[in-house]
Amino acid sequence: MPSICVVGSVNLDLVMIVDRVPEVGETVLGGDLERIPGGKGGNQAVAAVRSGGDVYMVGRVGEDEAGRVLRRSLEDAGVNTDRVLETPGCNSGTALIAVQADGDNAIVVSPGANARLSAQDVRESAMVANADVVLAQAEVPREAVLTAASTCGGLFVWNVAPVPSWTADLLPFVDVLVVNEPELRAVMGSTTMPPTGEIAKWSAASGIAAVVVTLGSEGALLVSEGEVAQIPAPAVNVVDTTGAGDAFCGALAVRLAAHRAIPTVADVQFAVAAGTAATQVRGAR
């Protein structure tokens, strides 16, 4: 079974359905409040298990009820949580999510215990060096992600979400970069979507073997050594887009772990299908 080590955030999502996201200074009424396990790291770990991976999570939760709920939710999904550490005197990460009637959302995150994940925490996890794929995001500190990237024994896949100020520090270690269009523009310093030739030139200069750009309802774009392809997404009735990108990343990681090579069109097609399926249910998982 392909092995994946996810280094990242674990949050409790507080979700409310609204007709539309409020503008600055505006109040809107919403539906009932739901408490749903989330966080990009946790979401991607669960998605990887569901896609057939043997998954290990490296992260931190608070010494609170939310932390116990988050750990249990990962374990129930089949994620190994031996390195999901409890952080005394600290709350677990929390995300406030407003989901519009059309499925789009607005999210504000309080990192909590996620901000305490250290380089030492990562070094003490043997799976960072031993897994077929290490998958990380940017909701935990630079030192933790950089340590994961520099000690990774397999492929290092980085989902640059959100785009941090220390992006340039990580790029030399990245095998596969996964971004959405705004994130790609921010990473490349472009005001518009760069043409594929420019993406290919930039990724080659950065030492990145492949760039995968998620495009929402339009699918995804793969730019790798000698290959450029756009993979369409099937048309579906969208319920909630929260976590769709995480489902994509988890599924892609499993495919890459199976052959320890840069993504093919078939790999991205598999990931697009997983991301699309995630939009048809409420919640990040």
What does the secondary structure layout of this molecule look like, with pairings?
Elements: E1 3-7, E2 11-18, E3 34-38, H1 40-50, E4 54-62, H2 65-77, E5 80-87, E6 93-100, E7 105-110, H3 119-123, H4 126-130, E8 133-136, H5 142-151, E9 155-159, H6 167-170, E10 176-180, H7 181-188, H8 196-206, E11 210-214, E12 220-224, E13 227-231, H9 244-259, H10 265-278
Parallel strand pairs: 1-4, 1-8, 2-6, 4-5, 8-9, 9-10, 10-11
Antiparallel strand pairs: 2-3, 6-7, 11-12, 12-13
Helix pairs in contact: 1-9, 9-10
What this model shows, in words?
- By secondary structure, this protein is α/β, with parallel strands linked by helices.
- It has one domain (about 5-10, about 40-90, about 115-280): UDP-N-acetylmuramoyl-L-alanine:D-glutamate ligase (3-Layer(aba) Sandwich).
- Helix content is about 35%, strand content about 25%.
- It contains ten helices and 13 strands.
- The protein has helices at about 40-50, 65-75, 120-125, 125-130, 140-150, 165-170, 180-190, 195-205, 245-260, 265-280, and strands spanning about 5, 10-20, 35-40, 55-60, 80-85, 95-100, 105-110, 135, 155-160, 175-180, 210-215, 220-225, 225-230.
- The protein has a nine-stranded mixed sheet, with helices on both faces. It has a four-stranded mixed sheet with strand order 3-2-6-7.
- The chain is globular.
- It starts with a strand and ends in a 7-residue tail after the last helix.
